[in-house]
Design goal:
This protein is mostly helical. It has one domain. It is built from 3 helices and no strands.
Length: 74
C-alpha cells in the first residue's frame, strides 16, 4: 500500500504545478504568514517577513499572469 502511495507522490512531484495549484498554495501560505505576523512581537521578525511577503505576492502575480495569458490564447 505504501509503495503505491510513494510511487504516486513521486510521479506527482515530477509534474510542475499549474498556476491554479500555485494560487492555492500561495493562499495557504498567506494564511500561515498572516497568523505568524499577528503573533510576532519583535519588529525585526516582521521586517524579515517582508521578503517572504514580496516573494508570495510576486508568485501570485506570475500565476495570475499565466492564467490570463492562457485564457487569451484560447
Amino acid at each position: 500500500m505504501w509503495r503505491k502511495v510513494l510511487q504516486e507522490a513521486g510521479a506527482a512531484s515530477q509534474k510542475p504545478a499549474t498556476p491554479e495549484q500555485r494560487l492555492i498554495m500561495y493562499a495557504d501560505l498567506r494564511g500561515v504568514l498572516t497568523k505568524a505576523v499577528a503573533n510576532t512581537r519583535h519588529n525585526q521578525k516582521a521586517e524579515a517577513m517582508a521578503y517572504i511577503w514580496s516573494w508570495l505576492e510576486a508568485g501570485e502575480r506570475q500565476a495570475m499572469s499565466e492564467i490570463k495569458q492562457r485564457e487569451r490564447s484560447k
